[in-house]
Amino acid sequence: MTKKERYQLFIDHFSKKSPTAETELEYTNPYELLVAVILSAQCTDKRVNIVTKDLFRRFPEAQSLSEADVEEVFEYIRSISYPNNKAKHLVGMAKILVNEFNNVVPSDIDDLQKMPGVGRKTANVIASVVYNKPAMAVDTHVFRVANRLGLTNNAKTPLESEKELIKNLPEEVIPVAHHWLILHGRYICVARKPKCGECDITHFCKSFGKV
DNA sequence: ATCCCGAGGG
DNA sequence: CCCTCTGGAT
């Protein structure tokens, strides 16, 4: 089948199955989302939400977080992965947010990445969710699943994957498609031994029978 | 044991 | 390009 047909089958299937897939991270403003996404690396959303509940009460906006003691932030987030790094990143991020960006979470990918703890994936999440930009955050799931399905043609890097997905997906589908790929990658198309027996989209999977 | 919606540094 | 950071869930 052509690439266009494959994309169409992908969209048809998931827009029926999970029309409203979205992040489970809890936040009430861009600052909180930025914090939550930085914390989410190698960690479930549920656990992030437990931690951010108290964290946001103590540091309601970037200003207070920018003046915070890294040690205190560490205490709030010690139950998630990489608490030392993330505590440093959060305070550093808040400092730049206040001092360089006048307390406004930037919409530009490059500006976002000037903040510690914010790499391309996190920057794309903000651009997409907060600013409705056609940005695709490529994490480990998106990268792997897109390659397996054949939405990307054996992309070698996340950036390559991102560009190909952006080029082929209708703009309005990009944000949901991100979550479709993640959900599929988390529960069915797992890294080690993909559960092809439980998969309901083998009819357009380029790797079915080959993994 | 093995895996989780990464980023920074060498 | 590879290493490290790291706790919790299953």
Task: Provide a compact summary of the structure.
56% of the residues lie in helices and 0% in strands. It contains 11 helices and no strands.
How would you sum up this structure, described in words?
By secondary structure, the chain is mainly α. The protein is elongated and about 55 Å long. The model has no long low-confidence stretch (mean pLDDT 94). Helices cover 56% and strands 0% of the residues. It contains eleven helices and no strands. α2 (30-39) packs across α3 and α5 packs across α6. It binds a DNA duplex (10 and 10 nucleotides) through α3, α6, α8, α9 and α11.
CATH superfamily of the largest domain: Hypothetical protein, domain 2
Indicate the percent of residues in helices: 55-70%
Task: Give the structural class.
Answer: mainly alpha
> In the CATH hierarchy, what is the class of the largest domain?
Mainly Alpha
**β-strand number:** 0
The name CATH uses for the topology of the largest domain is: Endonuclease III, domain 1
Major beta sheet summary: none
* Average of the residue pLDDT scores: 94
Q: Distance between the terminal alpha carbons, to the nearest Å?
A: 19 Å
Describe the global form: elongated
Q: What are the segments in which pLDDT stays under 50 over at least 5 consecutive residues?
A: none
Number of structurally distinct domains: 2
Q: Helices and strands, in N-to-C order?
A: HHHHHHHHHHH
Radius of gyration: 18 Å
**Strand portion:** under 5%
Cofactor: [4Fe-4S] cluster
GO biological process, one term: base-excision repair, AP site formation
InterPro entries: DNA_glycosylase (IPR011257), Endonuclease3_FeS-loop_motif (IPR003651), Endouclease-III_FeS-bd_BS (IPR004035), HhH-GPD_domain (IPR003265), HhH_base_excis_C (IPR023170), HhH_motif (IPR000445), Nth (IPR005759)
Catalytic activity: 2'-deoxyribonucleotide-(2'-deoxyribose 5'-phosphate)-2'-deoxyribonucleotide-DNA = a 3'-end 2'-deoxyribonucleotide-(2,3-dehydro-2,3-deoxyribose 5'-phosphate)-DNA + a 5'-end 5'-phospho-2'-deoxyribonucleoside-DNA + H(+)
